[in-house]
Amino acid sequence: MPRTITVAAVQPALQVADVDNNLARLDELIRDAHRKHNPDVIIVPEAASSPNVHHPAMRTVARPERGAPYELLTGLARELGIVVGGGYLAERDGDAYGHYVLAEPDGTVNSHDKDIPTMWEQNFYVGGNDDGVVDSPTLGSVGLACGWEWARYGTAARLRGRVDVVLGGMCWPTTPQNWVGPFGWWGNREHLQQIELARPLPGQVARLVGAPAVHASHVGPVTMYLPGLPKVPYRTTMLGETQITERDGTILARLSERDGEGHIAATIELAAPQPLDEIQDRYWIPDMTASVRATWDVANLHGKVNYRLRKLVGTHISR
């Protein structure tokens, strides 16, 4: 039978590789969202222990799968009596994964490993192979999606018609904001284009899958380095676009990049999925720019090779 629940989504501004302080900040934001909205579910983004960027310190970010990030999310679910979802780099069997946990108040924990690390993320973890569909005792059938899983028709196809709600989040750093001249002009132009790609995405996924979507995203400035050019700083910002949408794509609550850190809440209906849009025979849901497509191909290959070489000598994860 259809039923309504209140869901909240947190948009955090976190620091690269500062795992302990980031977890403390998440604790504050989740508790504040609970006090203000009294929701049944609170969702934080993927990579909530540290933004996923290209930086040597990222090799220190992975924690045991049931380490501190897991303890935070599951502990808050039990203490607050709600469902809590969030992601982090998790170490398991000698590899790191983009892991996302959905913790229930009764102690049940479901999880999903992001299938394809995005571009330079290939330097720091490997992809998983589960389909992202989990059975929640509180919510029913749930689709979990991380990062640019949200941006691919393949993800929508595997969740389509199978889930009552899509939960997860994004870590989308935009183009360099510190370059000048023609490169600065390109960066600003590309940044505006990427905002236009990110804004409709949660609603597009909701319509394709046929279920409401709760999409939490990172926000705020970060500094990383260009892959292959470790001395060239890449100062940028996270795009934001934390949203809660109905199954028809209607935005019920939203935080943009300009809104900064915070949280939102809305009431959604859980019911049998009803896809509204057709799956297209193409890879990306948004019409990705030429530079994004090229970076996807080159950075994926560079990062994958780098990770494997470092794993051979045992330096792919720093403890």
TrEMBL record:
It comes from the Bacteria. The keyword Hydrolase applies. SUPFAM superfamilies: Carbon-nitrogen hydrolase. It holds the Pfam family CN_hydrolase. InterPro entries: Aliph_Amidase/BUP, C-N_Hydrolase, C-N_Hydrolase_sf. Transmembrane segments: none annotated. Keywords: Hydrolase. One of its GO terms (molecular function) is hydrolase activity. Residues 5-270 form the CN hydrolase domain. The keyword Hydrolase applies. This is Carbon-nitrogen hydrolase family protein. The lineage of its organism: Bacteria, Bacillati, Actinomycetota, Actinomycetes, Mycobacteriales.
